[in-house]
Amino acid sequence: MTVIVLSGPIGAGKSSLTSILSKYLGTQPFYESVDNNPVLPLFYKDPKKYAFLLQIFFLNTRFHSIKAALTDDNNVLDRSIYEDSLFFHMNADIGRATKEEVATYDELLDSMMKELEHMPKKHPDLLVHIDVSYETMIKRIQKRGREFEQLDYDPTLEDYYKRLLSYYEPWYENYDYSPKIKIDGDKLDFMASEKDRQEVLDTIIAKLKEMDKLPEDWTPSHN
Ligand SMILES: Nc1ncnc2c1ncn2[C@@H]1O[C@H](COP(=O)(O)OP(=O)(O)OP(=O)(O)O)[C@@H](O)[C@H]1O
């Protein structure tokens, strides 16, 4: 069957779509736990000190989940390991990591990615990228209310978030580990609108059928 991985900026709705999609397909969801991440609040308080440690933390947790996902071969992951490097290089570009830290990280990531070459499946079957504008991203971040992500917690976050979005566009264009599709997260509110949700699901299912990952007569499992 299929391994699907979601990508997109903070608050794009990756976890929500992971839940919707895995139920629809009857496969297993893998979530990154933000609440159980002890380094994330430290990072937001002192990014320069904790950027490298946070990256090592994420690399470790995502490596475990992608390995499990590629072995089970039938699941949806709420964030890709492929985006972490974007985050870290962006942080390094604004002076939050030394060039030695960047070189060490890049080498470690490279070794870990080579390990994945030995998995029964080497990469996900499909990347589903949720594209959002700055306005949508901020609205969702506010609605969710994680204290350390709010602009009044740290006003420099506005620049951080805008910069992050500008790094995403070339990242998506260059991503070539698997087939990919983009969902317009500004236009399609798959949380609030049932019609939008169905449109998103139909788009993903059509892509999986086109890739021969689902039979033409496939219908959803209802659970
Ligand atoms: N590699 C990384 N480097 C720095 N921060 C990261 C990295 N990956 C995730 N984060 C941070 O972790 C938090 C959770 O991010 P993520 O986008 O994965 O989940 P989310 O915001 O719950 O997404 P969604 O709403 O789309 O489900 C955010 O504050 C984000 O900035």
From TrEMBL:
Keywords: ATP-binding, Kinase, Nucleotide-binding, Transferase. Substrate binds at residues 32, 44, 55, 79, 84, 149. Coiled coil: none annotated. GO terms for molecular function: ATP binding; deoxynucleoside kinase activity. ATP binds at residues 8-16, 140-144, 188-190. It holds the Pfam family dNK. InterPro entries: DCK/DGK, Deoxyribonucleoside_kinase, DNK_dom, P-loop_NTPase. Residues 4-204 form the Deoxynucleoside kinase domain. GO terms for cellular component: cytoplasm. The active site is at residue 78. Belongs to the DCK/DGK family. This is Deoxynucleoside kinase. It comes from Lactobacillus mulieris.
